[in-house]
TrEMBL record:
GO terms for biological process: regulation of DNA-templated transcription; response to amino acid. One of its GO terms (molecular function) is sequence-specific DNA binding. It holds the Pfam family HTH_24. InterPro entries: ArsR-like_HTH (IPR011991), AsnC-type_HTH_dom (IPR000485), Dimeric_a/b-barrel (IPR011008), Tscrpt_reg_AsnC-like (IPR019888), Tscrpt_reg_AsnC/Lrp_C (IPR019887), WH-like_DNA-bd_sf (IPR036388), WH_DNA-bd_sf (IPR036390). It comes from Aequorivita lipolytica. This is Lrp/AsnC family transcriptional regulator. The keyword Transmembrane helix does not apply.
Amino acid sequence: MAIDVLNWKILNCLQKNARQPNTVIGRQVGISSPAVSERIKKMEDSGIINGYFTFVSPFEAGYQFKAIITLRAFMGKLKPFLEIVKTYEEVLNCYRITGNENIVMEVVLKNQKHLESFIDQLIIYGETKTQIVLSHVVKNNDLKPLK
């Protein structure tokens, strides 16, 4: 499915606030509420829209640390790690990457002791490097049309 200019406008509205009513989106993009609904449904069905999410503040929820942890897997440990990482509650996002490291994870942790125990779980799979996140510079930036 091609994403035309009108669909991009709708996507822009949804990326800013996915809970706004279709009537509000329709007013912003210049079409009726049923037309907005139909376009959204088509974008959902085609996989352009993959879901709607609630972003919870880890700090307000009691976590003291957000960290980026990279892992350089030991020989033969990458595939087992790719399965076990899905079970770690601390992991918000995990990416398999190119370069010296194989994995980049975004994790949340209760405290320094929690960080230590989490790293202890990881080191059987490979060498880790940890960076503590101080603040977000860009957060959940909207996807824009290709130029």
